[in-house]
Amino acid sequence: MHEVFTKSMARNIYYGGSLFFILLFLALTFDSQTAIATRDNHENLTPQVAAGKRLWETNNCVGCHTLLGEGAYFAPELGNVYKRMGENKEAIKVWIKTRPVDGVPGRRSMPQFNFTEEQLDNIAEFLKYTSEINTNNWPPNIQG
User: Fold this and answer.
1) Partners of 66 in the beta sheet?
2) What is the spatial distance between Cα 81 and Cα 133, in angstroms, rounded to a whole number?
3) Which CATH class is domain 41-144?
């Protein structure tokens, strides 16, 4: 049996497929929006966290580090550094504060930024905030 593929059949497939994928797109968008809303961490967003984010951006930390998977892969992932440091903001501050001025010869290392104590508090608070974001178990291990 040989059946002819007509223009009306093609049009019906086109409109039916388009409608199907538009509805699928809307359903997935709605699902994503409801899932993100339940994982939101905005109640912990303080002026100190915002100041730490500005410090992160103005010093181009993302030029070397990744944060929640975004950024360069030159230096370690910092989305869970607060957990790696034993949930101790002081350890983060000491780590940043004790970087050698000229770096370690022959190794890539973080430069000394000479942050003030307030700036160190802000960046530590920002890194604590990012570690508390529900990332759906990403990265898969504590080392990032």
Assistant:
1) 71, 77
2) 12
3) mainly alpha
**Contact of 48 with 123, CB cutoff 8 Å:** no
Is 55:119 a contact under the CB 8 Å cutoff?
yes
Instruction: State pLDDT tens for residues 101-125.
Output: 776 677 778 888 999 999 999 999 9
pLDDT in tens, 7-17: 999 999 999 99
Tokens of 24: 């699928």
Nearest to residue 115, comparing CAs of 105, 126, 107? Answer: 126
DSSP string, 63-116: GT-EETTEE-SSS-B-TTHHHHTTS-HHHHHHHHHT--SS--TTS--PPP----
